[in-house]
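Q: What structure does this chain adopt?
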Amino acid sequence: MARKLIDGLSKPAIYYDLELVEDFETLSQNATWVLENSIDKTIVIDEVQRYLPLFPQLRALIDRKREAGRFILLGSASPDFLQKSSESLAGRIAYHELSPILKSEAESAFIPQPTHWHRGGFPDALLAPDSGYWYQWQQNFIKTYVEQDLSAMGISTTIPLLNNFLRMISHLHGSLLNYSTLSNSLGMANATVKRYVEILEQAYLIRRLEPWFVNVSKRIVKSPKIYIRDSGNLHFLSNIRHYEDLITHPIAGASWEGYVIEQVIPLLDPAIRPYFYRTSNGAEMDLVLVDGITPVVSIEIKLSLAPALKRGSTESVADLKTKNNYVVTPNGGNVAVRPQWVHCNIHELIGHLRTLKLIAE
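A:
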């Protein structure tokens, strides 16, 4: 994508990949000289986390010529990378998270929703010629992450235990995150489990969705919910090889919930924050979109084709006071099921959110 981007620039560009020995040596030995002599070019540095001492040198070069987009830095979001870049380039850097391919993007390539839901949004997995190839790709991806990337990010444990850790999280997908349960099941210290969860979140493998507190007088659930962000990763960890197996699997409902959430959140305007809502008396909402301190949209996610609302949903809306409320199912239909409630699918939901100006343009 970076190469495609620089092909369209109006000025020359240079691309360095720090996984290549020659590029690494060029920048590690002569970075200041090399980059100073390219002051009028756009410089793309891939796998930049492999040479963190570069950041202080970039700061000096940026200050000599302040121009947006002079440097495009690509790399994994390791804790060291984020810390060094924020310390050295404070006020000089903007971060952009590149999510897996979204349903709205897959539609333009005529990839059907069942395929996208089952396979997830990583390009090679999504475009696999068959389920066997998809499964092998997922296996290689998880193996690479477990054995290389995650250990480099600060997870120092045995590979079998880390594999068990990921599979435990897949079983908790869509549930409240209980660190003690994970700790006891894996025989790990509570503090270690918390740190590992934070690293997995920073690596964009999982999402912790925080609860919204609308009324302090109510007994509000305080724990976040945990999701594996890519549905393909989730289905591999759950050993679901085919879409036909997914729709009859016990995890199908939770998988659909996480899938819908991941199609919405990356599109939101940065000012809009996502939460869930749950109280001890049964009020519950899968996704609540909040503008500042005001809930503006409530979203109930159902795999069932019947858009019937439960008491917990109506009680949540009474608490949240949202006027725009949606039940999202695979088929949808944009049908009003009761006042201020619309039954829709993901595509229709995104259209409503765009009309409400909650989607970043």
